[in-house]
Design brief:
4 copies of one chain form a homotetramer. By secondary structure, the first copy, chain A, is α/β, with parallel strands linked by helices. Chain A has 2 domains: 62 residues, Phospho-2-dehydro-3-deoxyheptonate aldolase, domain 1 (Alpha-Beta Plaits), CATH 3.30.70; 255 residues, Aldolase class I (TIM Barrel). The first copy, chain A, is 34% helix and 19% strand. In chain A, the strands form 3 sheets. In chain A, strands 7, 8, 9, 10, 11, 12, 13, 14 and 15 form a 9-stranded parallel sheet that branches. In chain A, strands 2-3-1-4 form a 4-stranded antiparallel sheet. Chains in contact: A-B, A-C, A-D, B-C, B-D, C-D. Chains C and D meet through helix 2, helix 6 and helix 7 of C and helix 2, helix 6 and helix 7 of D.
């Protein structure tokens, strides 16, 4: 950690900073320049609180040298993490293909869409049973009933199922049915929920928060990893910006940036990023070209009647046609798309 | 609701939109212009899902006419909501003054700071017992022990206490001790938590999410109100932008905007907005001048040793001096600051 | 245009709005709902100033029905605009490849890099002679001398050259040497400059402003088109957000969005978007996969000594290797990369 | 400057960085930690290009120690800059009050509004003659004719006049009439224009760019100062964020932040920040409470007919009433508002 002092910091103040560093077992190096004095804290800076120094009156700024996350970093593990669930892979030379409705709306609907996306090459089924909705008056999901239909779809297709967990009180029921647990964007910093899924032995998809930096996203992944669960899949789904032509701004750069900083697989959710079905394919293609380990796409047999997220859902036929073109992009980057 | 169709929408498509509107009991008005056809849905548009129309291939855009929230709107209740807790007011001609440490770090500390801020005119005590921290390795709060010290501080000072609720599983213990429940920025869209506090008979401070629009913030307030609890205090605490000179960007405009749109009181948290103690006073003054019904300030007897948020905490003496100056601003807008 | 009145608007106020619309030759349609009165202005709403109505005390909001730009819209021209310069194409089934140094630093340097990128398949050369620099103490470009070297590079390679115009006073000299004029992000709303290039008979690359919405970007294109010059190439180069891991956030969605709204070609500048050489290839690939009509890449023979933008420049060999891989992506979307 | 190397940087790479620093006359300090090697460049780091190091493959990050601007910094000059024009002050214990129409629309109009705001205590008149408009089809200002009316208003009121300069080709004519030159938000990084006004002997109002950081804003001020003109007034006018309830997000924190970092006066423009007349007063009050050296307010005798910015303009009577209340806020912070 490097601590830059304000011009005019006194000897007494310098000593105070120095002692504070030593108290945590690190050693100190002081460099007095013409305009500024700089204090280096040498040792494991994760033992120091950056804030503790920023709060001192003589300090101008504090610069972290090491990354604040550890287990999930590329420094900690050089090789890419590859996750396998019921024979389907995320990571390595596979582009995983998650598909299904935004919300599970009924048994027939879930089995129908499940069968269709499976036959088009999807490698994972998705479907929400507990839905976070901005309006208290909107459809909130079928709950356990929805999870049961999801499990039935798994029996029929042989594909693993992913679904969102919103509340720590639902863990038992969600774990009972799901193969992959999804933490939604709004819960990326629900630290109690992260701690809970960190104790599970199931892969977790961690969606990026609407205004989360990549560093904060990796810190949230560290929360899960710190509890023991290292089967973490990061999911870019767009961030909030001033642009209103799309619901969110899909940060495609996050894909290669995450792959430099971390060994975890990273997938993309172009449906939520854009909120518009015509943009799903271009963004899915962009994500794969940029190195994504998977894409997650909402599919609905009748988007105009969907109880949630209709405008961004593809019909099963459109999904099938899209996979043909996405497969070519996957080939161009030396990977294969979807179902093994 | 106004539905603008794409150029070239067919008669069949127009009929489809029309039927969808009628199916929800609204009436339809069609206006065919030279360049676009526009369909108006007349009646209570809250019965329609905006998304259901956006998902139709012939639709260019959908415009809501009514606000998506109702109970919390100024249309619903003309008069300002004024909340009274243990004799202390929020709203009306009072500028409530919430003060205390970021985290309750111990008994002596909480009682000490509590006594000092009370004697400087604070009208509410604050202190966190459950802390949301971005790093899994940071101090997470004292839990129930912290709540007990907070309650003791209430006994000593006679002031009501406010504290954060992070997890639905903690409701019973938090309710047992707190007079005002705080929902943090990261939980502004934790809809399950909102539903739970909506069923309580305690005032709730709802902090604005880091990237929440004012409309979304009011929608979250509606979640609480829809369950029956109308003692809601909105709290502006800065939003995330590209500017890095301050931790967040304090959106002072949100104060008069909320007061136009809603009857709920709105307070400001300049400590979290800026992350820097030297900026707390100018922003608290700005908030009061702009019409805020209160300010919430972090105070610590030794900010340099604080276990959280040290850099933005004021010492008790600095807090006392600040209140003298803030009182003048409150006077200038015809209000009185703090304790009754 | 749809004008939504506030609850409680009086008959007199309604009449006032009505007369204002009629004064511009449009007809009026009034719809009185239970909660709100809505006034529709029927006719060419571009004759009305949205602001003129927003300023009225009785007006809650004003909604535009038509797009505020016209000539550059897809409604105005269905077919894609394809631009040809010295035999090289932008638009259609070609992915144009612009390459060269950020700044022209000298004759040998420009000719060297020009030759190398040409032999790797670039279809346009780029190089800055007038440089916008945030610091007054940084290298500001070689001016006309740089333009001469650029022209020499054109003679040697046969490729058209693109360079930035920053100041209306430089038009004559820039026009003398350049085949394609570039308007930088900081000048996207320099309306006087747009008017000037609108009068030229040369293709113009219009970079998206750092915080410009897609609508504003198209409005700026309309400025150029309104003066007669319709050879406009839009260039996405990243927008400013809260994320600091990359210099800007590359808005890949802007590519398909622009192609829906406009007939103009759209290219991508991954070098400026990210500021980091390791990210250039993934983003260039993403842009092509998403449908971009070209990519613009900074190449420098010695990035570590570059006078500007070194960190994001590729060496000529790295550029060559990248083109091999990007060609595969272009193939996958049915296009061909670079030089004809 | 501190250069943090990637884990695994070789001895050769370290030497390369070292030599590059020494080549610019600075000395080098190397600190080898367990996880990272850090290189400090000791001396005047403004001689080094941060980018030149970021471009090196072995470098993880580069941290500036000194601020990149100099003349405008508080380190360079401790005392506040106070500017006096025709007897009216900006800075010190005065809150300057700039008022007038967005655009000068005619002689009578300008003289009328000028007289009214002067009698209400304005200390400067404002009015645009050259207008930057997003649409090519909108009113672009009266040009020199407008400047003449502005000068007449100065004769009548005795107050100095401020007006915008958009194009370097207009300098002579603008200088001929204006007392204070305004550089608009869109031109904050029009470096050629900054250089030109840096050579003038007239005060310059430098508006903050829509997405400019405070550091970039100060760098632009440095551009002006570096040419010799130190009569610079910074003007906060809102930045672009995701929030759409207001046109921009007024960054009130920028006021105290700038006053910490720089000796230059800083004023606020609540009219442009919000785009809404009802928000002008709360934001003007907030700005003064936060320490602003002035406020700039748009006034129009008939906002509903204004050729630009009607929705955010106050009528002269409303302006007069507002000044009464703002004067109380100015008193509360120990300053006096407006005309001397």
């Amino acid at each position: 950690m490097i601590i830059v002092l304000k011009a005019g910091a006194t000897g007494g103040e310098i000593t105070q900073v120095e002692e504070k560093i030593k108290a945590h077992g690190l050693t100190v190096h002081i460099s007095r320049g013409v305009e500024r004095t700089i204090i280096g804290a040498i040792g494991d800076e994760r033992k120091l609180q950056l804030e503790a120094f920023e709060g001192m009156a003589c300090v101008e700024k504090v610069v972290r040298i090491l990354k604040p996350y550890k287990i999930v970093s590329r420094d900690f593990q050089k090789e890419d993490t590859v996750i396998t669930v019921l024979g389907q892979k995320i990571g390595g030379d596979t582009v995983a293909l998650f598909a299904g409705p935004c919300s599970v709306e009924g048994r027939e609907m879930m089995l129908g869409i499940g069968g269709q996306v499976a036959s088009s090459g999807a490698s994972f089924l998705r479907g929400g049973a507990f839905k976070p909705r901005t309006s208290p008056y909107a459809f909130q999901g079928l709950g356990e009933e929805g999870l049961r239909y999801l499990a039935e779809a798994r029996e029929e297709t042989g594909l693993p199922v992913a679904t969102e967990l919103m509340d720590p009180r639902d863990i038992d029921v969600v774990v009972k049915y799901a193969d992959v647990i999804q933490i939604g964007a709004r819960n990326m910093q629900n630290f109690r929920l992260l701690t809970e899924v960190g104790r599970l032995d199931k892969p977790v998809i961690l969606k990026r928060g609407l205004s989360a930096t990549i560093m904060e996203w990796l810190m949230s992944a560290e929360y899960i990893a710190a509890e023991g669960n290292r089967q973490i899949i990061l999911c870019e789904r767009g961030v909030r910006t001033f642009e209103s032509a799309t619901r969110n701004t899909f940060d495609v750069s996050a894909i290669p940036v995450v792959k430099e900083l971390s060994h975890l697989p990273v997938i993309a959710d172009p449906s939520h990023a854009t909120g518009k079905m015509t943009l799903v394919e271009p963004l899915a293609a962009a994500a794969i070209a940029a190195g994504a380990d998977g894409v997650m796409v909402e599919v609905h047999h009748d988007p105009e009647s969907a109880l949630s997220d209709g405008p961004q859902s593809l019909r099963p036929e459109a999904f099938r046609e899209m996979t043909v073109r996405l497969r070519k992009i996957a080939d161009a980057v030396g990977k294969r798309l979807g179902r093994v």
